[in-house]
Amino acid sequence: MKAYRAAILRFADDHAAVYEEDGLLVVAPDASGRQRVKAVGAWHELAPQYAHLKVAHLPGRILAPGFVDMHIHCPQVDVIGSPADGLLPWLENYTFPQEARFADPAHAAEVAAFFLDELARNGVTTALAFATSHPASVNALFEAAEARSLRLITGKCLMDRHSPDGVRDETEQSLIDTEALIQRWHGRGRLGYAITPRFAPSCSDAQLRGAGELAAKYPDVWVQSHVAENHDEIAWVRSLYPEARSYLAVYEQFGLLRPRSVYAHCIHFDDTDRALMRASGAAAAISPTSNLFLGSGFFDYEGADRVGFAYGLASDVGGGTSFSPFHTMLAAYYVGREGHSKTGLSLKPQQLWWQHTAGAAQALGLGGVVGNLQPGCEADFVVLNPAATPLLARKTALAASLDELLFAMIVLGDDRLIECTVVSQALAALPTMKPIQDLPT
Ligand code: GUN
Ligand code: ZN
């Protein structure tokens, strides 16, 4: 058992933040050796019970759940910041050429290591990620995640049409490879597989049908794709599937909407699409820095909440511009303002933080497992230093409420706020981070 004394942030079932100014977090291994939260609460209430434990005291620091990134592309690390007039030219001119480099397993391994270290440096401990169409890129990413004990869900990109040489795959082989990768990796330690049709225009009917059949055969495997991101993309889908009611309905037709299906963007939806998301149990990965960068549009929070489907936040690197959950939450705040301009309401700091932790975990079907620090959760957490920069120190010292404190970190925060990232399996700071016992006290 280990115990940490610091301020502690976690979330109640009603999504409200619970904050202990002076808290105690006690973690203990389960039968498989995975560290879980055993007790959490106010120091003065819990301390007598755990007086026998050596406590790591971290004054001035905040322990918070490790962030959950619902949609990110490992092979797009080197695509960040590539200018284009919109999604389709960005894919053609920058993204596909970079992804073609992953035919080389050495390149795939080098980028996978950088990618996961960058996630951890930014406090992300669970991610649903795209690899490329090359099975070796999936193996490289899983191997690197396993070595770091990170919770990673990924899969081989399916793309057998409208894709250039070097990234295009072959229908039958792509489905054989997918099933072999499911059997090799899904459920191994903290790893999970996601059946990954890139998006409807890049997959033949036979490939989408095969993906849907695998989704039915392996119901606890995830499905990830893109939908309703960009007007040119939507017009393209309409020309490919003139009979379909909408872009989302194409995925429904192939059996790709179900719990654990995660669709990035979901911007240009009508209420029938929203109701289909809700009824099927699929979830949206909101990617605000990407949508602003590529000029794709604004996720409609009001519509999503009115109809009531699951969603959470995502970086969508390399369309997205940052690995930092603080940058993503701030962009979501801007987008929320746009969507609520009629009502004058804006997203609250606790809502934004929930969407990138417990809410994202819930949308992935991992509620109560990660994204929170309630008893029973896997002990993935970040140590935040709210005085990490002169401006953060000045602003957070003035905070008169939890909302003001959280909002100061959302607006001014980046990787410097994350002093340490701790993951459940090893309960050691990740290799790129300072060991927790070396933190200044
Ligand atoms: N649609 C299909 N592929 C992609 C991708 O790599 N990024 C984004 N943002 N949208 C896509
Ligand atoms: Zn994406």
Short description:
This protein is α/β, with parallel strands linked by helices and 441 residues long.
Overall, the morphology is globular
Helix content: 25-40%
Which band does the percent of strand residues land in? 15-25%
Number of strands: 15
Structural class, by secondary structure, is alpha/beta
CATH architecture of the largest domain: Alpha-Beta Barrel
Account of the protein in words:
With 441 residues, the protein is α/β, with parallel strands linked by helices. The protein folds into two domains: 2-66 and 372-438, Urease, subunit C, domain 1, CATH 2.30.40.10; 67-363, Metal-dependent hydrolases (TIM Barrel), CATH 3.20.20.140. It has 16 helices and 15 strands. It has helices at 43-46, 87-100, 105-121, 135-148, 171-185, 205-217, 231-240, 247-253, 271-280, 288-293, 301-307, 325-339, 349-355, 358-363, 390-397, 402-412, and strands at 2-11, 17-29, 35-42, 55-65, 67-73, 124-130, 151-155, 157-158, 191-197, 222-227, 261-265, 283-286, 310-313, 381-384, 418-422. Helix 5 packs parallel to helix 6 and helix 15 packs antiparallel against helix 16 (402-412). The two termini are 21 Å apart. Mean pLDDT is 95; it is low at 427-435. The structure holds guanine and zinc ion. Zinc ion (ZN) is lined by residues 71, 73, 226, 264, 316.
Spell out the blueprint of helices and strands.
Blueprint: E1 2-11, E2 17-29, E3 35-42, H1 43-46, E4 55-65, E5 67-73, H2 87-100, H3 105-121, E6 124-130, H4 135-148, E7 151-155, E8 157-158, H5 171-185, E9 191-197, H6 205-217, E10 222-227, H7 231-240, H8 247-253, E11 261-265, H9 271-280, E12 283-286, H10 288-293, H11 301-307, E13 310-313, H12 325-339, H13 349-355, H14 358-363, E14 381-384, H15 390-397, H16 402-412, E15 418-422
Parallel strand pairs: 1-4, 5-6, 6-7, 7-9, 8-9, 9-10, 10-11, 11-12, 12-13
Antiparallel strand pairs: 1-2, 2-3, 4-14, 14-15
Helix pairs in contact: 3-4, 4-5, 5-6, 12-13, 12-16, 15-16
This protein binds guanine and zinc ion (ZN).
Guanine (GUN) binds at residues 73, 87, 91, 95, 198-199, 226, 229, 290, 316, 319.
